[in-house]
Amino acid sequence: IDDTDVWGLEVQYAYAFTENTSVMGFYAYTDSEIGQHADQVDGDPDAIWGFWDRADPTDPTSTLSTIYQLPNDQTGNQLPSSPEHKFAATLIHNMGLSNGSSLDFIATWAYNGSMYPSIANIERFKVPSYNRVDMSVTFTPEASNWSAMLYVNNVFDEIGLNEFRAASGFGSQTYLCLLYTSP
Predict the structure, then answer these.
(1) Which of 92, 84, 140 has the alpha carbon at shortest distance from 112?
(2) Three-state secondary structure along 48-75?
(3) pLDDT for residue 104 is more than 80
(4) Is the pLDDT of residue 166 over 90?
(5) pLDDT tens digits, residue range 41-89?
(6) Which three-class secondary structure string do you get for 83-114?
(7) Quick one: residue 155, left, alpha or beta (phi over 0 = left, psi -120 to 50 = alpha)?
(8) Which residues pair with 106 in a beta bridge?
(9) How many Cβ atoms sit within 10 Å of the Cβ of residue 77?
(10) How far are the Cα atoms of 18, 19, 27, 57, 116 from residue 164, in angstroms, in the given order?
């Protein structure tokens, strides 16, 4: 869309607390403003409806009316599926064992901020923010070319909704179609 602006800031970081323990990750802030644009958005509670009248070709004395959604101005809205805030931090700890083997512990916390699923920026459809924590431990024997890893993704079993689509029933109740989740 012409004249759409996207701006932000991303910071990456890494810090070693000790020779065996470090943290790394990023923070990203992203904002946007859509240029001059009008669009039809399914499920828009502020939709404007029009009627199209046409003659029935089988009966020239009758007129049929069809209802259709007119485009609404979306200028200045945020881009869809684009959270303003994202953050991730990974803690890594290596522990040497007395027999020369090692254990590596890794924990990652990721945050995905709230976002709009459509160009219309409809508040009641705003996708909420969510957190996710993943952990793993890896055992590597001394002077070996193999290792074993035990991992648990999404430790706290929080479901994050990445995207859904609102659909209208031509003036009737709006319903939601779930497209993808990130458990």
Answers:
(1) 84
(2) EEEEEEEEECCEEEEEEEEEEEECEECC
(3) yes
(4) no
(5) 887 888 888 887 777 778 777 776 778 889 999 999 999 989 999 999 9
(6) CCEEEEEEEEEEEECCCCCEEEEEEEEEEECC
(7) alpha
(8) 92, 136
(9) 20
(10) 44, 44, 25, 40, 10
